[in-house]
Amino acid sequence: MAAASTYLSECARATAPGESRFRIRAAIAPARAARVIALDERAEGVANRLAGRGWRHARFYTNRSGRGPGPVGSGPGGSGLGGELLLRELDGPFVRLEEVLTDTDVVVVLATEDGGRAAASAIGRLCGRKGITTAGVVLGDGFEAGDAVAALRPYARVLLLSADESDVFELLTALRV
Q1: Is the CB of residue 171 less than 8 Å from the CB of residue 108?
Q2: Concatenated DSSP letters of 81-125
């Protein structure tokens, strides 16, 4: 018969009273400000459904370039005066990308097709310059958004390809939005 081991497991040692001084007692702060940007019409539908869940620290935007009337001065690719990307807050006004990213901690870009490649690249570049964490979510069964993936890849710390839109909800929850 083998002798019983007197060694404590790592878990048992971590819960010992002497180890309590190493525990972090501060609450994990939620993201100060998160922005979710839908690059195309189907992604906008996903953003609308997500926005209805009542996130405390998130604001939702859509890239309206090339789809319907834009603000005065808007040109191809959603560029307004000075070549700035214009986004539209869901059920709200058009806003320059630079303003959207002010005091932002994390940006989640949603795409379901290739139409938003230029916008994805502009968002990624500006987030990179500002040091804002960028996550890209490409929703679809196939690779309908291959160009959007290619545009986001250099900038996104997280790039999720999924056929299930509930994964976006899970990502926002994991980011503590």
Answers
A1: yes
A2: GGG-BEEEETTS-EEEHHHHTTT-SEEEEEESSGGGHHHHHHHHH
Q: Output 108 or 16, whichever has higher pLDDT.
A: 108
Least confident of 31-35, 48-52, 67-71, 117-121: 67-71
Spatial separation of the C-alpha atoms in residues 113 and 66, rounded to whole Å:
14
Provide the token pair at 129. 């310059």
For residue range 103-138, what is the model confidence (pLDDT) as tens digits?
A: 999 999 999 887 788 888 899 999 999 999 999 999
Asked whether the beta carbons of 129 and 100 are under 8 A apart, the reply is no
Q: What is the pTM of this model?
A: 0.75
- Which residues, at least 6 apart from 68, have a Cβ–Cβ distance to it below 8 Å? none
